[in-house]
Amino acid sequence: MNSVSRQWLQIALDLNSSLSNQDRFDRLLTTIRHTLNCDASALLLFQDQQFTPLAINGLADEVFGRRFDLTFHPRLEAIARAGDIVRFPSDSTLPDPYDGLIPNHEDKLHVHSCIGLPLTIDERLIGAITIDAFDPEQFNNFSDDDLRIISALAASGLHTALLLQQLEKQAVVSHEPLTEKHNIKQEMIGTSTVMNELRSQIDAVAATDLTVLITGETGVGKELVASAIHYHSPRANQNLVYLNCAALPESVAESELFGHVKGAFTGAISHRKGKFELADNGTLFLDEVGELSLALQAKLLRALQYGDIQRVGDDRHIRVKTRIVAATNRSLHEEVKEGRFRADLYHRLSVFPLPVPPLRERENDVVLLAGFFAEQCRNKLGLNTIRLDDKLVSTIKAYHWPGNIRELEHVISRAAVMAKAEEKDGDLLLQTEHLLISDHHQAIDITPAEIDSNTFDYNEDFGLKSATEAFQKELIEQCYKHNHYNWAATARQLKLDNGNLHRLAKRLQLK
């Protein structure tokens, strides 16, 4: 048995081993790299006219977060349409999606030799393997038949992994026919331990009709979690209805929730369904539920308790089978203590509490998310390539991101716009000087500042209580400014509950 045959055998053994899918995919690419002596390779999943990386070898971590839409990547489109091995000539003018994304080759930013292996099952495309090298002649000694063997083995392994994954979900979610349908629009980017745990919790609760209370700081992606719960549930083919409770005027709040009949109030010119009815047999997502008034909380509680609603101006009761998923960035437990939220409603909503981790606790996910947003910017701005400077990557990993994923998205978007203004050739390198804080348009400072408690000016006329309050006020002001005027980040630095800090700030007349 020659060395090439042994490599094929090793690929087959790895793909049929008892390892996890990720380990099998990683070993596949490692074997390919050793066999073909390539500089980089990637295993991609094909869904809804785009490729999603499942495993990478020799590429920057940010590639894991990118989603390659065929509309914007002609090389990947060629691979998807070919039906067989694609060899791109070294002088091809088609932009390579990985240009500048192979680390430690700063002097050779553009890939020269590229091969695409479409992965098909029953003539249906399910993925692809891309193989890249800087040497234009690197793959000349490998025949198409050799590459077809890799393609066939990889396609079989990927197909098996997808079916097993679908079977696991089907066992707890529904009894629908087995398919390979994926909900990439509800995808959550990240491979950190806390995100994998969150996905496990979502899968567990999605299969039930339990009411879910999603908690977490502003910008962590609570709406995305609610969407994932719905689309992984037996209600996935029914409506997911969204209602922002914080933007709900008191005068129309009841009508928005429960609907109204014609003539119920001035302006009610026809019958109208409320959110509960629109979400019947589906899911109603109540965002910022902690902002509801006490009066509306009582009416919401009745709907949850008895499963029926009344339209405004109507005496009839309407039965609904609406699942409730709520979200808040407040501590509802503290709100209950302060009398601003009903205890009975809190217990009804928090049957399954689901905390979403802040970005600073998600290990290397910030790099993947930055790559995801960078790819979005590349598409929107019509760029050839967009990549992240090594120093920028170190900076965003060190920054505490008080605004979480939303802040990261805005920072990367602004950085891309600024970099484009400087570069006219369509190849952007995002650097640290392009990073700006959203509220103050200043470069991100990743060095934690010390809170200077020595600046407190003691007045001899102070009593202990007055002196303590004056010191608290000055310390909170310093910390608040240091954290870019973000109360949640200030609470974390002062090791206080967020709700308690807000109440203290109001008492000290800081709010």
Automatic annotation (TrEMBL):
It comes from the Bacteria. This is Nitric oxide reductase transcriptional regulator NorR. The keyword Transcription regulation applies. Residues 188-417 form the Sigma-54 factor interaction domain. NCBIfam families: PRK05022.1. It holds the Pfam family AAA_lid_14. GO terms for molecular function: ATP binding; DNA binding. GO terms for biological process: regulation of DNA-templated transcription. Keywords: ATP-binding, DNA-binding, Nucleotide-binding, Transcription, Transcription regulation.
